From TrEMBL:
Organism annotation: Lentibacillus persicus
Domain of life: Bacteria
Protein family: Belongs to the chromate ion transporter (CHR) (TC 2.A.51) family.
Membrane topology: Multi-pass membrane protein
Transmembrane segments: 93-118, 130-150, 162-193
Name the record gives this protein: Chromate transporter
Localization of this protein: Cell membrane
InterPro entries: CHR_Transporter (IPR052518), Chromate_transpt (IPR003370)
Keyword list, A-Z: Cell membrane, Membrane, Transmembrane, Transmembrane helix
Length: 206
């Protein structure tokens, strides 16, 4: 895969293949992603690829791979990041807004409709039981995801460091009340400082 930044050649490809693209087609492409993208971000990626690469040919496979690689390094939902960037590339600022609205609208509408419906019948016992039954399922899903992150960290930096860092973060979050964003920001800064300092240290030792 090439560089994660879109080159002039790639940008020219995007503009050539998106020429004459209507806002309606852009909206429908990402609206379908929003409707069918069950399972979160990973489930949306192949749908976006199908729309922008296979169906409309707004991007090449290489372009899509580069953009996806860059999007995965940034915070936020992957579907909205891809929608915003591709929409802007295809049809400017209006296309960016259009694509983002299209990909998030189905979820927002469904949430409003479902929550309104459940609220109107919340006095029934079977509704309370149904909503309560969802809680342990969500807990298990989050537990599985937590273990996957924990295992990935253990394989990457070692299990001892992972356990010690996890314990320290737990203390900071639960006992000290530190905001998670502050902890993440500090860790990112430390990682950058360590990365920048490593070549210098190696150079001094040689």
């Amino acid at each position: 895969m090439g560089c994660v930044f879109v080159s002039d050649k790639q940008d020219k490809y995007i503009k050539q293949n998106s020429r004459g693209t209507s806002q309606l087609r852009l909206f429908l492409a990402f609206f379908r992603v929003g409707v069918l993208g069950y399972g979160g971000g990973p489930g949306s990626i192949p749908l976006i690829h199908k729309e922008v690469v296979d169906r409309y040919q707004w991007l090449s496979d290489e372009d899509f791979g580069d953009i996806l690689a860059l999007a995965n390094t940034l915070p936020g939902p992957i579907a909205t990041k891809l929608a915003g960037y591709i929409g802007q590339r295809v049809s400017g600022v209006l296309g960016m807004i259009n694509a983002i609205l299209a990909v998030i609208m189905p979820t927002i509408v469904l949430m409003i409709v479902l929550l309104t419906f459940l609220s109107s019948i919340s006095e029934f016992d079977w509704v309370s039981g149904m909503t309560a039954a969802v809680i342990p399922v969500v807990g298990v899903m989050l537990g599985v995801l937590t273990w996957q992150f924990f295992k990935k960290a253990g394989d990457g930096i070692g299990w001892i460091k992972t356990i010690l860092m996890s314990a320290a973060v737990l203390v900071l979050l639960e006992l000290a009340g530190v905001h998670p964003g502050i902890i993440i920001g500090v860790l990112i800064i430390l990682a950058l400082v360590r990365r920048d300092g490593k070549p210098q240290a190696e150079g001094e030792g040689s």
